[in-house]
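Lab notebook: predicted structure, single chain.

Context: the supervisor wants predicted structures on file for every construct in the current expression panel, including those that have not yet been purified. This is the next one on the list. No modifications to the sequence; it matches the entry in the shared construct table.
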Amino acid sequence: MAIHKGSEGVVKVGSSTIAEVLDWSLNESADTIETTNLAATAKTYVAGKPGGSGSVSCHWDETDTSGQGALTAGATVTLNVYPEGADSGDTYASFSALITSIDRASGGGDGIVSASFNFTASGAITWATV
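Prediction complete. Output recorded below exactly as produced.
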């Protein structure tokens, strides 16, 4: 069984690595379509269209123009999420992502300014190997 530390992860916009990533999430889901008929004694369902959503949280870095700078609200970008790193043989997810919102926070008086980029997958999420 392979176990990976969160610190191995990498997130890229296309081929550009996003700077200062703290964490990320990717939720894959599928719609459910009810198929229950009147005579049924319990509800039944089939899977509908798949989709996904998630976020990337970072220390905010305004100089990261090809990474964080490409993640503007309303933009559609190609995101590549590498849970175990981006070395040969590592697995990653690739998909078109619509950036739905950006949250920035000061971190308080002694904290670091952070940015969280929220997205919805537009189209299929595909898994491949580097």
